[in-house]
Inverse folding.
């Protein structure tokens, strides 16, 4: 059986292999000679209607011979930026642009690369080329702060999927000790310092933070910055990850006539949609923090935030009780037949809280818990696909090294965590693969009921824990890992039975 599972895992990884990168939409090429020194020429190209982002990758030869080319760009109305002799791979989009270039609407029509030749010697010549890509707002592989993966290769990537900055309501202490809007820079630095691979900045109902994120991504080149926004209404909050295009969030207006309409519009963008802290009390201190709409179509939702760092601190009662309330909310929806990935986020509103009394009160630190995602590489598209696959677990501890996976078989049918087994007769054999949780115990949850007993002990740094469901499962099953003292450690996502 173990060899069957290993072979199936290899096939699973092959099937999930990333698609080849698309060919450029426009290619311009030519040569310059000594007579072109100190001249500028326009390299024209046409941008189609509906484009949300233009990416340019420019290259030339002869640098070792003193050839120098500088580059700018203009749209049909104005100059959109100048990279000089330092930026030859740049992006201009509605929501963000590479530093030195202006974000904003991408006007269709004739654009121009402004190519200047400050240096080339008499009698010399050099070739140049410009590759240009166009992307729509819903192309979430292309409309990303990093055009290439931050890291190649499949792996388990740690993410904090819910943080805030001063672009909405995050506050931290200024240099003089006053309460001030907290710059996104601090959030990203904390994420890097806490060993995260991904951090989503999800400010409330705004997109202004995307500009800063695009500016800072080249500096944080080991950390994927994921664009997000928290759709914040009086009836509930939801995060939309990945999509950076326009979206109405004011309930009652076209496109968001109701919370149900807002969710449907948000989900149609192709972004990853999560209902936040749904079991949290709502009221005077936090209007809409609990999820209230009774007409929610959960089939149009991708995930439930099963652990919210802020809620575990701010909700009266102990941490385990707060987590349990959120888990029960999620599992009740799984019991109703919905497929919803369980995720977590710190919901941090002060990245610098450790420097003194926070102006917004105690906060869960960025990276103090994590959503851990199996993905093909560390890129925006791969992380979003990994989240949708459901091969995801929640780590309630800080630091790297812990893994939880679940593979199930029945006859010739196989499914990984987040996958589906067809409903048939016969027992289900499953293996929980765990790493970094020596001394913990693996417990099996079937249709919302924890199998009785203390759970299976984990001995060693890595272990494969066999599990058997003699009577199958009606809807779903999953595994958790508890610490030696019984507290939750890792929370697994389900294998579904359909």
């Amino acid at each position: 059986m173990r060899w069957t599972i290993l072979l199936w895992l290899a096939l699973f990884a092959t099937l999930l292999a990333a698609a080849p990168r698309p060919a450029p939409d426009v290619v311009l090429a030519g040569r310059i000679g000594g007579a072109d020194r100190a001249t500028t020429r326009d390299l024209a190209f046409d941008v189609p209607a509906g484009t949300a982002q233009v990416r340019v990758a420019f290259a030339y030869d002869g640098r070792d011979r003193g050839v120098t080319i500088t580059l700018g760009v203009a749209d049909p109305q104005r100059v959109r930026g100048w990279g000089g002799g330092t930026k030859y791979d740049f992006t201009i989009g509605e929501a963000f642009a590479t530093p030195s270039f202006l974000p904003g609407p991408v006007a269709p029509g004739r654009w121009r690369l402004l190519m200047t030749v400050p240096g080339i010697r008499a009698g010399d010549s050099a070739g140049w080329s410009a590759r240009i890509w166009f992307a729509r707002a819903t192309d979430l592989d292309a409309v990303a702060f990093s055009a290439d993966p931050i890291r190649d290769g499949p792996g388990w990537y740690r993410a904090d999927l819910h943080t805030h900055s001063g672009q909405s309501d995050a506050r931290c202490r200024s240099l003089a000790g006053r309460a001030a809007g907290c710059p996104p820079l601090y959030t990203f630095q904390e994420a890097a310092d806490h060993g995260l691979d991904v951090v989503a900045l999800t400010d409330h109902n705004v997109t202004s933070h995307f500009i800063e994120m695009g500016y800072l991504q080249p500096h944080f080149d080991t950390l994927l910055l994921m664009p997000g926004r928290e759709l914040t209404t009086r009836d509930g909050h939801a995060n939309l990850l990945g999509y950076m295009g326009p979206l109405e969030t004011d309930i009652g207006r076209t496109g968001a006539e109701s919370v149900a309409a807002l969710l449907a519009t948000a989900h149609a963008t192709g972004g990853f949609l999560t209902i936040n802290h749904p079991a949290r009390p709502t009221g005077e201190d936090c209007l809409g923090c609990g999820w209230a709409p009774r007409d929610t179509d959960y089939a149009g939702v991708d995930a439930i935030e099963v652990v919210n760092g802020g809620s575990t601190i701010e909700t009266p009662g102990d941490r385990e009780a707060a987590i349990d309330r959120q888990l029960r909310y999620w599992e009740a929806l799984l019991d109703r037949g919905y497929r919803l990935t369980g995720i977590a986020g710190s919901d941090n509103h002060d990245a610098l809280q450790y420097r003194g009394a926070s102006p917004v009160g105690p906060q869960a630190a960025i990276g103090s818990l994590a959503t851990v995602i199996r993905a093909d590489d560390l890129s925006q598209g791969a992380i979003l696909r990994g989240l949708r696959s459901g091969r995801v677990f929640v780590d309630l501890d800080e630091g790297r090294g812990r893994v939880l996976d679940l593979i199930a078989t029945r006859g010739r049918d196989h499914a990984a965590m987040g996958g589906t087994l067809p409903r048939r007769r016969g027992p289900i054999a499953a293996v929980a693969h765990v790493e970094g949780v020596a001394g913990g115990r693996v417990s099996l949850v079937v249709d919302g009921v924890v199998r009785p007993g203390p759970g299976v002990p984990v001995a060693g740094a890595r272990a494969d824990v066999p599990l058997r469901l003699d009577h199958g499962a009606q809807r779903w099953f999953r595994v958790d890992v508890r610490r030696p003292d019984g507290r939750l450690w890792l929370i697994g996502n389900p294998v579904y039975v359909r």
